[in-house]
Amino acid sequence: MTVEEMKKKKTELGFSCEQISDRSGVPLGTVQKIFSGITKRPRYDTICQLEKAFPMEHNELPVIYGFEDQVPVNIFAGKCQIDFSEIYSYIEFFSKKE
């Protein structure tokens, strides 16, 4: 997600810089400088941390293929973190279909 995309989501969701800082773990001053445009080229790892502050829609989740079923995962900073709540909701949904 680019800084511009994050600015748009920030406005859509009504998030303050303080909320983004709390949700992402990025210091408030850094968040303020990035969103105000003072910091022109934020570090990649900072961008990855900031992305964590914004909830992803189901259709935005990266998907890893190669399993019997598609397993939704969140990928941040090159690390794969499986969102088990999503997996459990899929299991529940498909269990009810039988």
Structure description:
By secondary structure, the chain is α+β, with helices and mostly antiparallel strands. The protein has helices at residues 3-13, 17-24, 28-36, 44-51, 84-97, and strands spanning 63-64, 71-76, 79-82. A hairpin with a 6-residue loop joins β1 and β2. α2 packs across α3. It is elongated, with a radius of gyration of 16 Å. The chain starts with a helix and ends with a helix.
Summary, kept brief:
The chain is of the alpha+beta class and 98 residues long. Helices cover 51% and strands 12% of the residues.
Major beta sheet, strand line-up: 1-2-3
User: How many β-strands, per DSSP?
Assistant: 3
The total count of helices amounts to: 5
- Which sequence of SSEs, written as H and E, runs from N to C? HHHHEEEH
- Which assembly state applies to the chains in this document? single chain
SSE blueprint:
Elements (H helix, E strand, L loop, with lengths): L2 H11 L3 H8 L3 H9 L7 H8 L11 E2 L6 E6 L2 E4 L1 H14 L1
Antiparallel strand pairs: 1-2, 2-3
Helix pairs in contact: 2-3
Keywords:
elongated; alpha+beta; 98 residues; 3-stranded antiparallel β-sheet; 3 strands
